[in-house]
Specification:
This protein is an alpha/beta fold. It has two domains: 145 residues, Rossmann fold (3-Layer(aba) Sandwich), CATH 3.40.50; 62 residues, Arc Repressor Mutant, subunit A, CATH 1.10.10. Strand 7, helix 5 and strand 8 form a beta-alpha-beta unit. Helix 2 runs parallel beside helix 3. The radius of gyration is 19 Å and the shape is elongated.
């Protein structure tokens, strides 16, 4: 089992839970507490992990980074395709959770406030049996996000990506088969969804990145 978590006390807590409550589980533990350490472990490991427990906010370059875990999750999928990934996080911002679900597709997704030690052990047992385990908070998030069609449709996401790559609004219709007025209306919807009112393109980029949309 590979445990990637920025709080050393949590790492020891997870290990204790499996040792005490998961009596039939005989895991060898590998741990990492920063982005760089996790990256090194995964790139140099000769092991084939059954389970990867992943936090999504880790220190990167000495500073906390909300998206570092997402990059590590995608790396884990590439390097350890057989491993079952369980994301455990305290984040409950729905766009962040949905982005992780979409890009990593973890077998388990738990919110730290949602589970007991026994439930964590049960979650691991289930994913090892090729089941998926999602906490109530996470399932509610996915249901809500699936209803937000306007922000999630491919055109609005393309607008976000183009703005994020530096394309000016007046040039967007060169990349998207819509009139300038139609694009402006979609930008208004995006701004409303991001709760930035009459924000600039820079505000859109900043908030969309913070929420894991681009």
């Amino acid at each position: 089992m590979l445990i990637i978590e920025d709080h050393l006390s949590m790492i020891e807590g997870y290990k204790s839970i499996f040792q005490v409550f998961g009596k039939d589980m005989l895991f060898d533990f590998t741990t990492a507490s920063t982005f760089e350490e996790a990256q090194l472990v995964m790139n140099t490991s000769t092991l084939s992990y059954d389970i990867i427990i992943l936090d999504i906010s880790l220190k990167r370059g000495g500073e906390k980074n909300e998206h570092s875990g997402k990059e590590l999750g995608k790396m884990a999928r590439r390097l350890f395709p057989i491993a079952k990934i369980i994301i455990i996080t305290s984040h409950i911002e729905k766009l962040t959770l949905y982005s992780l679900y979409r890009d990593i597709n973890p077998e388990g997704f738990l919110i730290k406030s949602d589970f007991t030690p026994n439930q964590l052990v049960e979650a691991v047992e289930k994913v090892l049996r090729y089941e998926y385990v999602y906490s109530d908070t996470f399932q509610d998030c996915v249901k809500e996000m699936s209803q937000d069609r306007l922000i999630l449709d491919s055109v609005n996401r393309e607008i976000l990506n183009l703005i994020g790559s530096g394309i000016k609004t007046k040039s967007l219709n060169q990349y998207i088969p819509l009139s300038t007025s139609a694009i402006d209306k979609r930008k208004c919807v995006i701004k409303e969804f991001l709760n930035i009112g009459k924000g600039t393109d820079e505000d859109i980029i900043r908030e969309a990145k913070r929420r894991g949309l681009i």
